[in-house]
């Protein structure tokens, strides 16, 4: 399977197979499964969290990658490594292991696996996913890889044990570069790091549309599933945490234009609903106060990051409602006010505030410690004037902040010097601003753990002694000034000046033009969509042949394809997306050993070789273009008329020669192996086409007289022969083990035959003779899910359902601006749902 080969199971990213929703359960983590009345996850499942990354279960594809590589594929892997290094700037350090560590430094479970082994496994898994992102292309990567990673990201925060703060020590240099909007890490962040690496790599590969058109709508969906609910469960609170973490990760990569375009959606569809959830006393969190505290901290960090990106002037216009909603939580918790004024309560509950289930959690979260941690950074950023307009209850927040600072002073031996400026403004002199808000105290609390601002303290013993491991408030002020200068264009030497805004590395695979339109359309389709839609959207053009293209062969991984032409060459092309749909690409490799025009090209999957025929059969290596072997008819007076490859794992081919014989070739041995006679009477004509059953049990030969003969591959006995058409048969193809499809010049129709009975089972009518066709099998397994894509010499392409009378087929004429010349051959990419159309002028077009 094309997508199944990315699937792997194990404790890699930190998500348990038991809690990953399948397609039958729900479309996203935010959606509850209705299989049972209780949607809560058991405590046992929450404590033992592993991973299961299964990216699809499609039945329409081949192996993801064979042994053969083409020129340019190694560049893809190099790009993946480069992108990984660039994306790592947002996630300092190596991906952490997804297992719990005991206090003595040893892994708790399993005992025989070390942390270094787990880290190597994570790096290998990430490298696999990044490589497949480049090989699958934009649509499959977004539909299967990205959607699965987005679901896994939420489950990285599933369970109360994923909300515990980590005790991470920092050296002096890292302290200075720590920004206030970087929230203290929790256990779930370690599990989420490799997932975020892969998601950002996908955005690096295919550009900003992935962020704005897939990630942000997914975030909005997760939040919408929780905002309208009267109560939360473990999945929903994990979805909220995943949404906030992902949004904070992608905001630095948004361009200024994209951020302004998405700002309304980010604020009104994400920020405000999340704020209404954790500032509402009517809602209690299943994981308790710890989850509410983590969500509050990460949301505050996200708001700070957005404020830094849009600038002080835009904060008052865009962020005032969000800031007001956040700080309103202190009024609800401390003054006992109801949250009706802030939260638009649709339930009309009339119980008293102190009876609300979340009131106790509110008091524990919105405490003086949080007031000090939240108020000081926003004051440094906005100044007194703007903060008064954005925070109506500023007096209460100031009072709580001062109360907490006074409590800390009782624990400190050094008297403080607190002098808050009247109106600090971003970009002012850092020396004066830092000294004006300097707090000379060796003891600060921690937000979430025990901190003020971004000063983190860790309780080391039962007596409450604290060890300070973060920066002072003066460094906080200096960091904001440095960030302001970096945003305004002033040179900055701050080590973290790139964390607020980063540029996506330019890539030739960035989605634009027709590729972007097709990607938007395709990811909007359901993964279970069973029909082929031909919209005539031109994506790429391949030029280089000097004559008509007579054969096309798509590699099973749909990453490359081969074309054989009258110009006596076989060319290998890359199917990687490039440009905006107007790009003209050249071949990666050219095979020039043929002496006559090539009429057949096929991939021998069992040995990963290419078979091409011009009357003489050539077997050659697609990596180097070197000829492996050649096969000719035993008598020089005869030539090979038709070729068909036996299905894997058989490493052979069957050829029909002009002396009415079927001969078998083993690509591992020289010479022809055995032969069967095809004589069915005088006037049968020459063999035009061969077809082998999917199981390799029988082979059928079509003659120019309209006769079809079926032989047993194992014994050579003739199973059936009949007069299928009145005229020359153009092509035959096996649909299944009992059905054969044929096209001819007579009656303008495709006929399906029962092989062992020799009778017609159904027919597909066309307005013109069909000289080339391919079959498309949808995601379903029923025969009615199969379709035939047919092409005519009049440049018409039709899609005809098989055995589905209620879905009549239709055809459309190719537009001259999209396709020039006469259509000679077509091939379908079933997983990517694309078409290759070859013309008599030597060009091939990739169309959707």
TrEMBL record:
A GO CC term assigned to this protein in UniProt: mitochondrion
Superkingdom of origin: Eukaryota
Keyword Cytoplasm in annotation: no
PANTHER family to which the protein is assigned, alphabetical: WD REPEAT-CONTAINING PROTEIN 81 (PTHR44662:SF1)
UniProt feature, compositional bias: Polar residues: 24-40
Keywords: WD repeat
This protein's name: WD repeat domain 81
Source lineage: Eukaryota, Metazoa, Chordata, Craniata, Vertebrata
């Amino acid at each position: 399977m094309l997508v199944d080969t990315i699937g792997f199971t194990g404790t890699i990213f930190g998500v348990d197979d038991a809690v990953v929703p399948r397609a039958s359960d729900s479309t996203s983590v935010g959606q509850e499964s209705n299989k049972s009345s209780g949607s809560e996850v058991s405590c046992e499942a929450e404590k033992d969290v592993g991973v299961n990354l299964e990216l699809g279960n499609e039945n329409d594809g081949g192996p993801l990658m064979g042994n053969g590589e083409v020129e340019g594929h190694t560049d893809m892997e190099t790009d993946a490594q480069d992108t990984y290094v660039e994306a790592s700037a947002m996630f300092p350090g190596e991906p952490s292991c997804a297992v719990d560590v005991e206090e003595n430094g040893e892994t708790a479970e399993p005992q025989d696996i070390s942390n270094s082994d787990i880290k190597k496994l994570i790096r290998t898994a990430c490298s696999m996913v990044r490589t497949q992102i480049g090989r699958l292309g934009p649509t499959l990567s977004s539909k299967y890889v990205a959607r699965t990673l987005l679901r896994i990201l939420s489950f990285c925060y599933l369970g109360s044990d994923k909300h515990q703060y980590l005790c991470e020590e920092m050296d002096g240099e890292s302290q200075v570069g720590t920004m206030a909007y970087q929230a203290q890490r929790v256990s779930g962040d370690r599990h989420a790091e490799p997932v975020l690496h892969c998601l950002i790599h996908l955005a690096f590969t295919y550009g900003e549309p992935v962020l704005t058109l897939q990630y942000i709508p997914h975030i909005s969906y997760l939040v919408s599933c929780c905002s309208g609910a009267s109560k939360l469960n473990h999945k929903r609170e994990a979805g909220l945490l995943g949404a906030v973490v992902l949004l904070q990760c992608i905001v630095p990569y948004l361009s200024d234009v994209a951020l302004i375009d998405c700002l309304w959606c980010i604020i009104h569809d994400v920020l405000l609903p999340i704020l209404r959830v954790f500032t509402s006393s009517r809602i209690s969190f299943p994981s308790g106060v710890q989850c509410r505290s983590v969500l509050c901290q990460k949301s505050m960090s996200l708001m700070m990051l957005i404020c830094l990106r849009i600038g002080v002037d835009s904060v008052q216009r865009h962020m005032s409602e969000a800031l007001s909603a956040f700080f309103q939580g202190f009024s609800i918790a401390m003054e006992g006010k109801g949250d009706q004024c802030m939260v638009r309560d649709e339930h009309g509950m009339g119980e008293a505030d102190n009876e609300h289930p979340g009131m106790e959690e509110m008091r524990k979260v919105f405490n003086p410690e949080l007031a000090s941690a939240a108020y000081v950074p926003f004051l440094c950023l906005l100044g007194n004037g703007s903060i008064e307009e954005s925070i109506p209850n500023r007096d209460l927040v100031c009072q709580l902040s001062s109360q907490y600072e006074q409590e800390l002073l009782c624990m400190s031996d050094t008297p403080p010097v607190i002098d808050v400026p009247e109106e600090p403004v971003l970009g002012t002199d850092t020396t004066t601003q830092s000294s004006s808000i300097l707090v000379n105290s060796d003891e600060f609390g921690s937000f979430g753990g025990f901190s003020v601002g971004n000063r983190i303290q860790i309780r080391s013993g039962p007596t409450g002694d604290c060890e300070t491991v973060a920066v002072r408030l003066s460094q906080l002020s200096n960091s904001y000034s440095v960030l302001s200068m970096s945003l305004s264009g002033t040179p900055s030497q701050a080590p973290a000046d790139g964390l607020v805004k980063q540029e996506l590395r330019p890539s030739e695979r960035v989605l634009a033009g027709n590729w972007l339109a097709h990607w938007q359309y395709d990811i909007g389709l359901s993964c279970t969509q069973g029909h082929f839609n031909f919209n005539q959207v031109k994506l790429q053009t391949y030029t280089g042949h000097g004559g008509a293209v007579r054969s096309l062969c798509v590699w099973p991984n749909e990453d490359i394809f081969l074309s054989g032409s009258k110009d006596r060459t076989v060319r290998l092309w890359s199917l990687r997306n490039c440009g905006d749909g107007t790009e003209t690409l050249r071949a990666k490799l050219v095979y020039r050993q043929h002496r006559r025009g090539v009429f057949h090209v096929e991939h021998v999957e069992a040995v990963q070789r290419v078979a091409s025929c011009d009357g003489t059969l050539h077997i050659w290596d697609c990596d180097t273009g070197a000829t492996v072997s050649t096969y000719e008819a035993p008598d020089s007076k005869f030539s090979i008329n038709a070729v068909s490859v036996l299905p894997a794992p058989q490493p052979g081919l069957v050829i029909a020669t002009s002396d009415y014989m079927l001969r078998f070739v083993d690509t591992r041995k020289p010479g022809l192996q055995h032969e069967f006679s095809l004589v069915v009477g005088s006037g049968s004509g020459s063999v035009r086409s061969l077809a082998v059953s999917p199981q390799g049990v029988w082979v059928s030969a079509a003659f120019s007289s309209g006769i079809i003969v079926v032989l047993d591959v194992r014994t050579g006995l003739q199973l059936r022969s009949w007069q299928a058409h009145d005229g020359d048969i153009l092509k035959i193809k096996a649909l299944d083990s009992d059905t054969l499809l044929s096209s001819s010049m007579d009656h303008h129709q495709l006929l399906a035959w029962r092989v062992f009975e020799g009778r017609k089972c159904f027919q597909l009518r066309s307005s013109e003779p069909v000289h080339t066709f391919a079959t498309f099998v949808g995601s379903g397994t029923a025969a009615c899910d199969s379709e035939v894509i047919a092409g005519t010499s009049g440049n018409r392409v039709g899609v005809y359902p098989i055995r589905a009378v209620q879905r009549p087929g239709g055809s459309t004429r190719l537009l001259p601006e999209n396709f020039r010349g006469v259509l000679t051959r077509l091939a379908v990419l079933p997983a990517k749902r694309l078409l290759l159309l070859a013309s008599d002028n030597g060009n091939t077009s990739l169309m959707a």
